[in-house]
Amino acid sequence: MLKDKTVVIGVCGGIAVYKACDLVSKLKKTGVNVHVIMTKSATEFVAPLTFQTLSQNYVVEDMFESPKTWDVEHISLAKKADVFVLAPATANVIGKVANGIADDMLTTTIMATKAKVLIAPAMNTNMYENPVVQRNIQTLKDLDYKFVEPESGRLACGDIGSGKLASVDTIFNSIIELLEIKKDLEGTSMIITAGPTVESIDPVRYITNRSTGKMGYSIAKKAIERGADVTLVSGPTNIVPPQNLKKFIQIESAEDMYNAVLENMDENQVIIKSAAVADYRPKEYSDNKIKKSDDDLSIRLDRTKDIALELGKIKNNKILVGFAAETNDLLENAKNKIQKKNLDFIVANDLTQDGAGFGVDTNIVKIIDREGVVQEHPKMKKEEVADVILDKIKTLLNK
């Protein structure tokens, strides 16, 4: 299965370069086609001929050297890559990639690729923990670059701490995991709602909730990776939308979200309602800012449309998935929502649990189906929860 896969490994300068030799060898043994790009600094530690022998492909190191093929090399390698790996990745190259700098063959090729990029940092502890480096790493993570975190231990400089290149086995397994992403949702179209809604009081003030959109965006990203055509309807968030969406619809209010979902419902087989929609909105909107006074302010609220409830009435044979974020009586409240809203299943989480709910990268969920069967899951990253949800949807699609 891996013989048709191509991995491009970008090797940066550092004492850990020798481990990249082992990584190339290990990948070649699986049948993967491996290409190596070296920075000038990397060639001071290991000769390009070593990687050329191990990969059985010529090594690219100089932006302006005579080309070995008729292709524009950095574009050719960028297109060939199924996974692009930086190992070891220095603070310098991480900083360049995070800030859009493409001044050598390696950074230029990364800039041109649409493949998954996996970064394995290796550097001195103080460099790794430097706020600037950590900011650059977080920037790349927010843009969906993958990382293999460095290990702690004795470094080549003699220091003890974080920054040691992860083991070859760890990096290898991460690459294989990216290469073997399931495409089991090809031909499936779905709407995913995410984030909060905003209900305006006046031009300055509004009612909203604590949702950050992380769960919905994680589902959208994973669904795209698995081959689905995804329409993401999102309230205001600080998250960069995943690449290759069919549609991205930015909304504010619950009414906006209801209309967007309804307009796109017919062309989709699955609707995942992971957004935290405001239950109430101000009965009256003030065109001018409401001025502060010595009296208390009363704001009358109207009920917003229950989007999942309305969709449940007209869904026909579509799959409708709901969410229940509760602080008490989790199972009872979630089961009631399944019946009331005609859901196929519901994803329930207890907001009082550490590591669950809004604003964190993990979640702890229970998935409950129409028959009341409960599947409990431990604390997982939201992307892992997304795969669990999509696995359940895939089972329903196959019925």
From TrEMBL:
Single Gene Ontology BP term? coenzyme A biosynthetic process
Specify the DNA/pantothenate metabolism flavoprotein C-terminal domain's residue ranges.
185-395
Which parts of the chain are coiled coil?
none
What is the required cofactor set for this protein? Mg(2+); FMN
Q: In which pathway does it act?
A: Cofactor biosynthesis; coenzyme A biosynthesis; CoA from (R)-pantothenate: step 2/5; Cofactor biosynthesis; coenzyme A biosynthesis; CoA from (R)-pantothenate: step 3/5
Q: Name one GO molecular function term.
A: phosphopantothenoylcysteine decarboxylase activity
Annotated catalytic residues:
157
EC nos: 4.1.1.36, 6.3.2.5
Keyword list (alphabetical) reads: Decarboxylase, Flavoprotein, FMN, Ligase, Lyase, Magnesium, Metal-binding, Multifunctional enzyme
Instruction: Identify the PANTHER family for this entry.
Output: HOMO-OLIGOMERIC FLAVIN CONTAINING CYS DECARBOXYLASE FAMILY, PHOSPHOPANTOTHENOYLCYSTEINE DECARBOXYLASE
Q: What does this protein do?
A: Catalyzes two steps in the biosynthesis of coenzyme A. In the first step cysteine is conjugated to 4'-phosphopantothenate to form 4-phosphopantothenoylcysteine, in the latter compound is decarboxylated to form 4'-phosphopantotheine. Catalyzes two sequential steps in the biosynthesis of coenzyme A. In the first step cysteine is conjugated to 4'-phosphopantothenate to form 4-phosphopantothenoylcysteine. In the second step the latter compound is decarboxylated to form 4'-phosphopantotheine.
Q: Please identify the protein, giving its name as recorded.
A: Coenzyme A biosynthesis bifunctional protein CoaBC
Name the species this protein comes from.
Answer: Paraclostridium benzoelyticum
